[in-house]
Amino acid sequence: MAPHAYDRLDPAPVLATVERLERRIAARFPDRGLRRVAGDLLQLSHDVAEGATAIRDRVRTVRLVARVASALVVAATGALLVVALGDALSTGPDRPFEWVPLVESTINDLVFAAIAVFFLHALPGRLERGHLLDLLHRLRSLAHIVDMHQLTKDPERLRETFAPTAESPRPGLGRAELESYLDYCSELLSLVGKVAALCAEESRDPVVLDTVSTIETLTTSMSRKIWQKISLLPAA
Fold first, then answer.
1. Helix axes of 100-150 and 33-91: crossing angle, nearest 10 degrees
2. Alpha-carbon distance 66 to 119, whole Å?
3. In sequence order, which residues have a C-beta less than 8 Å from that of residue 96 and are 6 or more positions away?
4. Count of C-beta atoms within a 10 Å radius of residue 192
5. 3-state DSSP call for residue 231?
6. Angle made by CA atoms 148, 154, 157, in degrees to the nearest 5
7. Backbone phi, psi, residue 12, to 5°
8. Which pLDDT tens digit goes with each residue over 21-64?
9. What does the DSSP assignment read for 74-133?
10. Can you tell me the distance from the alpha carbon of 187 to that of 193, in angstroms, rounded to the nearest whole number?
């Protein structure tokens, strides 16, 4: 049975949505820093989409090499044990306690071989995890940057009763512009979560999945705070 079209998050529509949002922000706020943030998200989205294919090919190669190396380790260890056992049986000690060093050496060889096989088996997953966690760290940082851009855009500054001080930030936005600005911030945060979800499409690593879930929770919480601001905007 063919997989359903909605069983997987496709990078292409996500990239198209980020590109469209970047153009919308550039058209309305060409001189604002939010436009550069959207550009950074677009670049990061391309890194995630393109890096997914690259890391998949690299992990496939490393996995193949690791399997070959593991087979060689097992074969070499088995051959050494057979040779050692054969030599011990032909010229071995006569008394039982003299077999203790040979048994101890055999156990050590088996333990070291098992450690080597375990390391080689885990190597592809560690490589994939390191790459994806680096991308997710950049996405988390970008979400906080978006939150910093909306931090001083408070609806109360548009009220007639608001009394600014010498240190009060001046957003320089009217009511309609402020609503659009906050809306764009919310969309950026939502897309940060979607780009993070693309990382989960390429991995089943529990650490990666937990980090993706944390970023989605973070962006949802930040977006909820922005929509509370929008709801408090004075009537047009």
1. 180
2. 9
3. none
4. 29
5. helix
6. 135
7. -60, -50
8. 999 999 999 888 899 999 999 999 988 887 666 666 666 776 77
9. HHHHHHHHHHHHHHHHHH--SSGGGGHHHHHHHHHHHHHHHHHHHHHHHHHHHHHHHHHH
10. 10
Write down the pTM of the prediction: 0.73
Measured CA distances, 108 to 73, 77, 101, 171, 197 (Å): 14, 11, 11, 69, 44
* Per-residue exposure over 75-103, b if at least 16 CB sit within 10 Å of its own CB, e if not: eebeeeeeeeeeeeeeeeeeeeeeeeeee
**Cα–Cα distance, 36 to 22 (Å, whole number):** 9
Tokens of 37: 């943030």
Give me the torsion for CA of 160, 166, 172, 175, rounded to 10°: -20
pLDDT higher than threshold 50 for residue 2: no
User: 44: which residues sit within 8 A by CB, 6+ positions away?
Assistant: 135, 138, 139, 142, 195
